[in-house]
């Protein structure tokens, strides 16, 4: 990993040195040790010296509460600062106007966040953020993770650029008609603008890290050169409380992701109050990021602070800044000069002497407006240092005032997150502060106007020139159709032939299929296996030597199993993303790969395989964001089912993930019973997601670790259609007497084997004829039925597939699965026969498969009793038959 670039300045340059000679002696001593014994010895001595003092303030993870880059070390600002200030003023105005106009309908929106962060965005748009037309990034541009509550400001800038109209701004948060603007960054709702959903909070920072990592993955595997594509994540200091926000910091530091910059808007406020009322969020975040290996740039104070820092000859000001908690700073930003003199400067005679030379106006400027996040030169300096830093990701901690420029009723107020509009008087004050040419007459109306300069104005010309130089508009989402050829049928046909006499689990069948597909000359390299951990549990160790596990540094050690055929092989161009025990990180990986077709114009085929319930239950929020981001790929719930994993117990036994998945409109959920069903579903998934008419969906398959003989795919018409639609008749009842009771047994997944045994028992012991149906997707059957119901309301004559498939089937229907009953019950309203479901409701437990299935009442004998009970309710068998069966089978 390359060494970080050494900065030509020090954070301490802005603090007066009361004894330069002593400082020079210390530096000379360190130079001497470094020369004689090396830098590690010098660092060791420094750590021992800090340890000896026992002073928390000397902790190397935390620096003084001042700017990392002193004013004297700031680079020359390359733009027209006055011009950019006017452009920013228009954006501020239109963002506030849009939200205020929407408040007439009770919709509201968020004003204060963008008001505090406007320069953080504008500086990037003018000087850093590459668009999709930037040739140096190969059409990828930069990836921008916009803080969700700042979206009004992004819409305002798109309006200024001519990408949005006034009518569209007036449809902010009005999407029912199909042409409104979503409240937050939602790619599914506005797919030409937004690339990444960032609300729910916390998912943005996590996703940004894995996006930056996936960019490197594409580069290292030779798929695309992403070396000039940078990931920017704009976050709130309160958002960093979310566990996902900091979950992958160590990964970014460990892998040296210098293509990643976090910009944390430290306005010191959460949604309803201070982030750290009694502490300091900037200092806390600095220590956290430094410990994780990040380059930290603190950009806290505006230029107005320079002269009082210069007067701090004994460090009194630095001490006061460090000891003042955030909630008190929030108070300082709203109080008068007398309060500041007494409560901030009055605590120390040295501070009092500094305050004597400051006017009241100067004091108010210091505490109310002079923040580095509001000064483009300081923001530019931080951004330039970030993109030029090598060897580590960078976090910029930029201090701002929440509600800045919105007036004293907004600025630094605890309630400003919930304040959705400005009054007419507040707009006048804002107009005057921003020096916008908007006449009073335009503000006398009930509705505040939008405003923008003329198309031929210098502002518009400057804006267009800057974005043209950076590669066009941003943010922007662009999809160029790049369909993938379908793999040869050979791999799919192998599963359709069955396993002969060999017993294999459907988990292994899927892995074998993907292993064969990864050999395809055209599309094999585009598969991206993503595993949280336990790849060997899923039988994936056979992929290790051939595909390799991705590592940006390759393999720097001799693996312990090197002498084995299936040894643990890491490689810089490795194909497998083996993430360790992190479902959140793995799904973030999957999302980056699943949306690469849009982000980078490179369709990838990820499959994310996880253990039992730990996918949907743990990260359902991320799956929702995946759908929002229009991700495509295969999600595999391995070791599925509530009774199929022996001995794992309550926290592992999954009987409900299909129910959770059914709530996600983009997830096509399947519970295949046989290997050939897996083949049919995966083949169709490749066609639907990567063919000429690609759809924005992803597939969820549950596969099992119970080994069974896999039958060949039945012959006859309609089998593949039934698999994909969710139901087909697998095995008819054996010949029986003409007056024999009849019924239909339906099952998904491994439960098919229970009803096959039940079919034999019913025929042998009770003279009952049962047809066997495989139901690979209860959810898809329900969705088809709902669509048919909606069509009938519009006058169409459409009958649900499940109704047509079961039409005329004699007797009641008994549906069985290793899932809670609500999963198959999804289709009950559209089944004309008498309906009974059998499932695994309740908590899981530890035991053998046989004992667990008997406990939940889903084993073959229990299914027989349920079938006889269904027949008894119809009068097809005697009521006492049910009691007799229970006694015979010990139920």
UniProtKB/TrEMBL annotation:
Transmembrane segments: none annotated. Residues 726-859 form the Transketolase-like C-terminal domain. Its EC number is 1.2.4.1. Residues 147-307 form the Transketolase N-terminal domain. Residues 487-708 form the Pyruvate dehydrogenase E1 component middle domain. InterPro entries: PDC_E1_N, PDH/Transketolase, PDH_E1, PDH_E1_M, THDP-binding, Transketo_C/PFOR_II, Transketolase-like_C_2, Transketolase_N. NCBIfam families: aceE. This is Pyruvate dehydrogenase E1 component.
């Amino acid at each position: 990993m390359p060494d970080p670039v050494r900065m030509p300045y020090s954070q301490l340059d802005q603090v007066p040195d009361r004894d330069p000679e002593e400082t020079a002696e210390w530096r000379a001593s360190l130079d001497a040790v470094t020369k004689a014994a090396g830098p590690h010895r010098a660092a060791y001595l420094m750590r021992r010296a800090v340890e000896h003092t026992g002073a928390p303030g000397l902790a190397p993870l935390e620096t003084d509460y001042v700017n990392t880059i002193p004013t004297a070390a700031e680079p020359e600002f390359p733009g027209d600062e006055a011009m950019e200030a006017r452009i920013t003023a228009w954006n501020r105005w239109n963002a506030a106007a849009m939200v205020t106009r929407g408040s007439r309908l009770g919709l509201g929106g968020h004003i204060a966040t963008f008001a505090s962060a406007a320069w953080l965005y504008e500086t990037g748009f003018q000087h850093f953020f590459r668009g999709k037309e930037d040739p140096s990034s190969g059409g990828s541009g930069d990836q921008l993770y916009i803080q969700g509550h700042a979206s009004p400001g992004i819409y305002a800038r798109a309006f200024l650029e001519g990408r949005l109209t006034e009518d569209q701004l007036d449809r902010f948060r009005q999407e029912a008609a199909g042409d409104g603007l979503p409240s937050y960054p939602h790619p599914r709702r506005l797919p030409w603008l937004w690339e990444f959903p960032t609300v729910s909070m916390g998912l943005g920072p996590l996703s940004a890290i894995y996006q930056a990592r996936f960019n490197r993955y594409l580069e290292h595997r030779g798929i695309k050169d992403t070396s000039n594509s940078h990931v920017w994540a704009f976050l709130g200091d309160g958002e960093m409380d979310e566990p996902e926000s900091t979950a992958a910091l160590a990964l970014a530091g460990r892998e040296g992701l210098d293509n990643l910059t976090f910009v944390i808007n430290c306005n010191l406020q959460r949604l309803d109050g201070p982030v750290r009322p009694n502490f300091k969020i900037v200092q806390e975040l600095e220590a956290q990021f430094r410990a994780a290996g990040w380059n930290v740039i603190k950009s806290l104070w505006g230029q107005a602070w320079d002269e009082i820092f210069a007067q701090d000859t004994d460090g009194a000001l630095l001490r006061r800044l460090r000891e003042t908690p955030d909630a008190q700073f929030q108070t300082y930003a709203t109080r008068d000069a007398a309060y500041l003199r007494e409560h901030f400067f009055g605590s120390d005679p040295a501070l009092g002497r500094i305050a004597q030379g400051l006017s009241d106006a100067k004091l108010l400027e210091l505490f109310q407006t002079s923040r580095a996040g509001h000064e483009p030169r300081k923001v530019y300096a931080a951004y330039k240092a970030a993109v030029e830093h090598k060897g580590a990701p960078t976090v910029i901690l930029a201090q701002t005032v929440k509600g800045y420029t919105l007036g004293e009723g907004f600025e630094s107020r605890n309630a400003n997150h919930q304040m959705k509009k400005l009054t007419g008087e507040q707009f006048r004050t804002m107009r005057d502060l921003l020096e916008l040419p908007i006449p009073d007459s335009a503000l006398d109306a009930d509705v505040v106007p939008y405003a923008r300069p003329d198309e031929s104005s210098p502002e518009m010309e400057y804006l267009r020139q800057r974005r043209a130089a950076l590669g066009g508009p941003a943010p922007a989402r662009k999809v160029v159709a790049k369909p993938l050829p379908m793999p040869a049928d050979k791999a799919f046909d192998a599963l359709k032939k069955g396993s002969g006499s060999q017993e294999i689990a459907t988990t292994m069948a899927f892995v074998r299929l993907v292993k064969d597909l990864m050999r395809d000359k055209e599309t094999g390299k585009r598969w991206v296996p993503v595993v949280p951990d336990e790849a060997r549990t899923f039988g994936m160790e056979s992929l290790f030597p051939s595909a390799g596990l991705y590592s940006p540094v390759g393999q720097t050690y001799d693996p312990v199993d090197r002498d084995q055929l299936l040894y643990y092989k890491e490689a810089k161009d490795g194909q497998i993303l083996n993430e360790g025990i992190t479902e959140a990180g793995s799904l973030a990986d999957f999302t980056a790969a699943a949306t690469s077709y849009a982000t980078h114009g490179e369709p990838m085929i990820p499959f994310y395989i996880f253990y039992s319930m730990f996918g949907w239950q743990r990260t359902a929020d991320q799956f929702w964001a995946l759908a929002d981001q229009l991700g495509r790929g295969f999600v595999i719930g391995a070791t599925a089912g509530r009774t199929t994993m022996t001995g794992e117990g309550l926290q592992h036994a999954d009987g409900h993930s299909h129910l959770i998945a059914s709530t996600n409109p983009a997830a096509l959920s399947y519970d295949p019973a046989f290997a050939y069903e897996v083949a049919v579903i995966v083949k169709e998934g490749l066609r639907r997601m990567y063919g000429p008419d690609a759809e924005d969906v992803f597939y969820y398959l549950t596969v099992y670790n119970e080994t069974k003989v896999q039958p060949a795919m039945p012959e006859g018409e309609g089998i593949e259609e039934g698999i994909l639609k969710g139901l087909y008749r697998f095995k008819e009842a054996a010949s029986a007497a003409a007056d024999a009771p009849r019924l239909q047994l339906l099952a998904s997944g491994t439960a098919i084997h229970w009803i096959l045994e039940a079919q034999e028992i019913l025929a042998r012991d009770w003279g009952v004829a049962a047809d066997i149906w495989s139901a690979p997707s209860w959810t898809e059957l329900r969705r088809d039925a709902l669509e048919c119901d909606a069509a009938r309301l519009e006058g169409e004559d459409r009958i649900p597939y499940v109704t047509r498939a079961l039409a005329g089937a004699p007797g009641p229907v008994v549906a069985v699965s290793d899932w809670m009953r609500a999963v198959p019950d999804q289709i009950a309203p559209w089944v004309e026969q008498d309906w009974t479901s059998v499932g695994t409701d309740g908590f899981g437990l530890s035991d053998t498969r046989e004992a667990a299935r008997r406990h939940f009442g889903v084993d073959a004998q229990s299914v027989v009793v349920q079938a006889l009970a269904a027949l008894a309710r119809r009068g097809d068998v005697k009521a006492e038959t049910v009691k007799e069966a229970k006694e015979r089978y010990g139920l």
